C-alpha cells in the first residue's frame, strides 16, 4: 500500500502558505527564499498565487534547485487542499493527495508510473481511515481492488490478470480470508474454489 512517510513534509510545506498573509493582493505571485522562513537552510524556494484578496485561497509551489517539487491548492483558510508531488529530475507527476485541516488525509492518494498511468490508489473516508485500495498494471488495467475497514481488509477483494480477466476473488474479515474464494486462469475460466474460515481452508 501507499505509505504516508512524506505526509509530514507536505504539512510543513502547507504551513508555509501562511507566512505571506498581509502582503500583496489577490491573483499575485510571490517568491520566498526559504532562508528567510526556515532553519536550517535548504535548497527550497516557494511561489504563491493568491486567488482572492484575503489570501485564503490559492496555489503554493515549492522548488528544489529551481525544479518544481510540490504544488498545493488551498482554500477556506487551509481546510481543504489538493497536493501534487513531482520528480525534480524528470518533472513527472509522482503523487497526488487530498488533505483536510493539515491533520488528516481524506479522499484519494494516487501514485503514478513513469508513463503517467496510476500505480496505486488509496481512498480514505472523512475520518481519515482507509476504506478502499486499488493497484494497477503499468498498462493502466486494474491489478487488485480491496475494501478496508478500521485499517484492515474487510470486504470483497478482487485480483486481476494483466489481460483484464479476474484472477482471484473473495471476502476478507479483519485481514483474514472468510468464505469462498475463487481462482481463475488467464482466460477467466474457474480453476478451483476454496472455502476459508479465519484464513484457513475448511473445504
Largest sheet: 16 strands, antiparallel
- How many distinct domains? 2
Strand content: over 45%
Helical content stands at under 10%
Organism: Niastella caeni
Protein name: Toxin-antitoxin system YwqK family antitoxin
Keywords: Signal
InterPro entries: MORN_2 (IPR011652)
Keywords for this structure?
16-stranded antiparallel beta sheet; 203 residues; 2 domains; 1 helix; mainly beta; Histone H3 K4-specific methyltransferase SET7/9 N-terminal domain; 54% strand
Strand and helix map with partners:
Blueprint: H1 7-15, E1 29-33, E2 44-50, E3 58-64, E4 67-75, E5 80-86, E6 93-100, E7 104-105, E8 107-112, E9 118-124, E10 130-136, E11 142-149, E12 152-160, E13 166-173, E14 176-184, E15 190-197, E16 200-201
Antiparallel strand pairs: 1-2, 2-3, 3-4, 4-5, 5-6, 6-7, 6-8, 8-9, 9-10, 10-11, 11-12, 12-13, 13-14, 14-15, 15-16
Protein name: Toxin-antitoxin system YwqK family antitoxin
Pfam families: MORN_2 (PF07661)
Keywords: Signal
What does this structure look like?
It is a single chain. The longest helix has 9 residues, at 7-15. Helices cover 4% and strands 54% of the residues. Residues 3-40 have low confidence and may be disordered. The chain has a 16-stranded antiparallel sheet that branches. The chain is mainly beta and 203 residues long.
Amino acid at each position: 500500500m501507499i505509505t504516508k512517510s512524506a505526509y509530514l513534509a507536505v504539512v510543513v510545506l502547507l504551513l508555509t502558505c501562511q507566512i505571506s498573509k498581509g502582503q500583496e493582493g489577490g491573483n499575485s505571485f510571490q517568491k520566498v527564499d526559504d532562508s528567510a522562513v526556515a532553519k536550517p537552510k535548504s535548497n527550497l524556494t516557494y511561489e504563491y498565487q493568491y486567488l482572492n484578496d484575503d489570501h485564503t485561497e490559492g496555489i503554493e509551489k515549492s522548488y528544489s534547485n529551481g525544479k518544481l517539487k510540490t504544488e498545493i491548492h488551498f482554500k477556506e483558510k487551509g481546510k481543504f487542499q489538493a497536493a501534487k508531488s513531482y520528480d525534480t529530475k524528470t518533472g513527472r507527476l509522482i503523487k497526488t493527495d487530498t488533505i483536510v485541516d493539515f491533520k488528516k488525509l481524506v479522499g484519494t492518494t494516487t501514485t503514478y508510473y513513469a508513463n503517467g498511468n496510476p500505480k496505486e490508489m488509496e481512498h480514505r473516508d472523512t475520518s481519515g481511515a482507509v476504506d478502499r485500495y486499488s493497484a494497477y498494471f503499468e498498462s493502466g488495467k486494474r491489478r487488485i481492488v480491496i475494501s478496508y475497514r478500521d485499517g484492515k481488509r474487510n470486504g470483497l477483494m478482487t485480483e486481476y490478470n494483466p489481460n483484464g480477466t479476474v484472477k482471484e476473488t473473495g471476502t476478507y474479515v479483519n485481514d483474514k480470508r472468510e468464505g469462498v474464494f475463487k481462482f481463475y486462469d488467464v482466460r477467466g475460466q474457474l480453476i478451483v474454489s476454496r472455502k476459508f474460515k479465519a484464513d484457513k481452508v475448511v473445504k
